[in-house]
Prior knowledge:
Blueprint: E1 4-10, H1 13-26, E2 30-37, E3 41-48, H2 50-64, E4 68-75, H3 81-85, E5 96-102, H4 105-118, E6 122-128, E7 136-141, H5 144-158, E8 164-171, H6 175-181
Antiparallel strand pairs: 1-3, 1-4, 2-3, 5-7, 5-8, 6-7
Helix pairs in contact: 1-2, 4-5
Amino acid sequence: MKKSIGLVEFKSIAKGIEATDAMLKAAHVELILSTPICPGKYVTLISGDVGAVKNAVEVGKQTGSIFTIESYVIPNVSPTIFPALTATMDVNKITSLGIIETISAITSIVAGDVAVKSANVQLLEIRLARGLGGKGFVLISGEVAAVKQAIKACENKLEETGGIISAVAIASPSHELISKLL
C-alpha cells in the first residue's frame, strides 16, 4: 500500500533524469511520474513507505544539487491522490466545482491532499504543469460549503509560501464545461 508520496522538481531535464535513477536505486519506492514539465523543468514523483520515500527524496536532492528547485514528502497521503494524478477518478454527479490554481506541480499535489483531508470533497484531478508554464491546478467536487471549506484550508496551508495563485468555487457548473474539463 502506498503510504507516502515524494516529489522533487529540477531545473534541468538531464539532472532530473539522473537524480530519478539515483532515487530508484537508493530505496524501495515506486515511480509514479518522471517527466519534463514547462518551462524546461523536470519533476519526479515517487510513493512507498515513509522512510523509503524520505531517503529517496534526499538522494534526489543531493544528486540534483544546484539543479534541485524544491522537494516535498507527504506522509500518510490520501489514497485519492493517485487516481487524481492520472485523471482516473470515477465522477458521479458534480454539484459544485472547486478549482485551485497553484504556482508549481508540487504545490498542486500538496493542495489536493490538504483539500480531501480538510472537507468532504471528491478529488477529481490534479493537473501538473504540462503546458501550464510550470503551474498546476486541482479540481474538486462536493457540496458548495465543503468545496469552499477545502479551498480555505488550502489557502491557509499554502499562504506563507504563496503557493496558490487563485481558487474559485462554482455552484452547479455547466454540464458542457464539466464534459470538456474531465
